[in-house]
Amino acid sequence: MLALSERVSGYGRTPDQTIWHKPGPGHRCIGQCDYHPIACSEEEGIVFPGPKRNVPIRLDAENERWCPDCLALHRQQPTTQKLPR
């Protein structure tokens, strides 16, 4: 799934966390954005974001997780699959 990363600083000896968010609907990025809206909030977004990346639903990297609201939105969407002819 295409996603945007949010870096959350750790406290004390806790490592920084990367939280993956689904991009907001209708957002088109050309790679020079100062702000990306996220699907889980109409008010919040990612400031000075990195580019959108294709991120697997099952994360195996340490200190990374999906935003639970964005993941729930992804699971609610119907999948459209093209069948071969």
Structural notes for this entry:
- The protein is mainly beta and 85 residues long.
- The protein is 11% helix and 27% strand.
- The protein contains one helix and six strands.
- It has one helix spanning 68-76; strands at residues 2-8, 17-21, 35-37, 45-47, 53-54, 64-66.
- Strand 3 and strand 4 form a beta hairpin.
- The two termini are 25 Å apart.
- The mean pLDDT is 83.
Q: What's the gist of this structure?
A:
This protein has 85 residues and is mostly beta strands.
Our measurement of the CA-to-CA distance between the termini, rounded to an integer number of angstroms, reads 25 Å
Shape: globular
Number of strand segments:
6
Instruction: Please list the strands of the largest sheet in the order they lie side by side.
Output: 5-1-2-6
The unreliable regions are: none
